[in-house]
Amino acid sequence: MTSAKQYVVGDGEGWTKGFDYSAWTAGKQFFVGDSLVFNYSQGRHNVFKVNGTEFKQCLKPLVGSPFTTGKDEIELETAGRKWYICGVSGHCSAGQKLFINVLEGSAAPAPTPVSP
């Protein structure tokens, strides 16, 4: 059995403009129970959970409030596609948006080493 993973979005760069979040997600598998942590300077950015259309068009949702703490942790509770954007004017269009696909189950456990 494996435990849930916590992913810091953008690693050391955090949640910011001008970062390639598609490259950041490459090779990663996200599972139900994992979480995303969005680190940024409070007041300079935010995080909106959006749908696919809002993601493509960089639109803030009509319903719902942004995450604004500067260290927002979002648990991935259901499988499927997930989209996130920064709602500050111009930030999403400058690349501050994230798309992931969340899978059911969990990552395969690491093989147990064989004792000599």
TrEMBL record:
The record ties this protein, via PROSITE patterns, to: PHYTOCYANIN
Domain Phytocyanin, which positions? 5-104
What keyword terms does UniProt attach to this protein?
A: Copper, Disulfide bond, Electron transport, Glycoprotein, Membrane, Metal-binding, Signal, Transmembrane, Transmembrane helix, Transport
Q: How does it sit in the membrane?
A: Single-pass type I membrane protein
Question: What cellular component terms from Gene Ontology apply here?
Answer: plasma membrane
Q: What is its main location?
A: membrane
Q: Per its UniProt record, what Pfam families does this chain match?
A: Cu_bind_like
Biological process according to GO: response to symbiotic fungus
Q: Name one GO molecular function term.
A: metal ion binding
| Localization annotation | Membrane
Return the InterPro entries for the record.
Cupredoxin (IPR008972), Phytocyanin-like (IPR039391), Phytocyanin_dom (IPR003245)
Q: What is this protein called?
A: Phytocyanin domain-containing protein
